[in-house]
């Protein structure tokens, strides 16, 4: 009888130890997931800052706002003077945003405005920016302009209006647009991010070969690194989908084909599951606190 009790005790201890390990692993996965999303957002920030600097170097040096129409049909706006746009310039800007390249310029300028540290708009300017965002969003489906859609999502989580002393992010004003309820938009968004990262890997590999640097690994053959890059893109887009109210089942409809395509390991899949679960719970907590 005593032997039997000892065996039961040992079995219970093993089970408890196993549960502790699983909890620790889960915690570690969650932390990794948070780090990946943070790194991804930092990379996107650096990329935007680079684009903004390029754009800045190509601008007029008279430090004045210009909205140009005519044969060239392009826009130049000194972003730190956005508060001084006239009604006519705003209307001209909306017309010019019918062109994809002007939408690219607008987001570059918005990014430059961010570099001044002024992320909040007053009510008047906030209404203008929301109106412009909605104009841009209306063109996404027509032109299959996922680049602009992605930037609308990211910048709407950066800029805010001040209402009664409280921050209200632009996301709250655009979240109900129909395009964000379409899974194809998020599938294309994810494809854009993944393809960009793959091209970046290929560029680095090409550079390595060109420099004849045999001491560095062949990046394309580094399966572990590649898998974690894909994981980073999926985790980041999941974060955005949850912020825009995409349901859990729909999120998996978007990401599962990519997870299968890139043959992600069970560990990576489990990490993604944990990130989705935690973010959904965070959003529920926010709703309760409102």
Characterise this structure.
With 290 residues, this protein is mainly α. The protein folds into two domains: 66-176, no CATH class; 182-289. 71% of the residues lie in helices and 5% in strands. Strands 3-4-5 form a three-stranded mixed sheet. The longest helix is centred in the first third of the chain and has 56 residues, at 2-57.
Averaging pLDDT over every residue, what do you get? Answer: 76
Strand count, sense and barrel status of the largest sheet are: 3 strands, mixed
Q: What is the count of distinct domains?
A: 2
In whole angstroms, the N-to-C terminal distance is 58 Å
Shape: globular
Bin the helical content.
over 70%
Which segments are poorly predicted (pLDDT under 50) over 5 or more consecutive residues? 48-71
Name the beta content range: under 5%
The whole-angstrom Rg is 24 Å
Number of helices: 10
* Helix/strand order: HEEHHEHHEEHHHHH
Strand order of the largest sheet: 3-4-5
Q: How many β-strands, per DSSP? A: 5
Q: SS-based structural class?
A: mainly alpha
């Amino acid at each position: 009888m005593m032997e039997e009790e000892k065996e039961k005790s040992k079995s219970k201890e093993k089970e408890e130890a196993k549960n502790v390990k699983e909890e620790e692993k889960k915690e570690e996965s969650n932390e990794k997931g948070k780090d990946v999303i943070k790194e991804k957002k930092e990379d996107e920030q650096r990329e935007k800052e680079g684009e903004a600097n390029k754009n800045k170097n190509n601008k007029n040096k008279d430090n004045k706002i210009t909205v140009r129409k005519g044969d060239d049909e392009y826009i130049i706006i000194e972003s730190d003077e956005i508060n001084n746009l006239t009604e006519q310039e705003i209307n001209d800007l909306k017309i010019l945003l019918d062109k994809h390249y002007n939408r690219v310029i607008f987001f570059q300028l918005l990014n430059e405005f961010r570099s001044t540290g002024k992320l909040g708009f007053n009510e008047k300017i906030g209404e203008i920016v929301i109106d412009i965002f909605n104009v841009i969003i209306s063109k996404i489906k027509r032109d299959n302009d996922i680049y602009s859609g992605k930037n609308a999502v990211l910048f709407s989580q950066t800029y805010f209006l001040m209402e009664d002393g409280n921050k209200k992010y632009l996301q709250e004003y655009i979240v109900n647009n129909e395009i964000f309820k379409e899974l194809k938009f998020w599938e294309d968004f994810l494809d854009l991010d993944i393809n960009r990262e793959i091209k970046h890997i290929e560029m680095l590999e090409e550079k390595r070969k060109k420099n004849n640097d045999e001491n560095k690994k062949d990046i394309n053959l580094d399966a572990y690194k590649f898998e974690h890059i894909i994981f980073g893109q999926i985790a980041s887009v999941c974060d955005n989908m949850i912020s825009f109210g995409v349901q859990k089942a729909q999120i998996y409809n978007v990401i599962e084909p990519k997870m299968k395509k890139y043959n992600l390991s069970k560990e990576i899949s489990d990490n993604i599951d944990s990130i989705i679960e935690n973010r959904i719970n965070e959003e529920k907590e926010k709703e309760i606190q409102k």
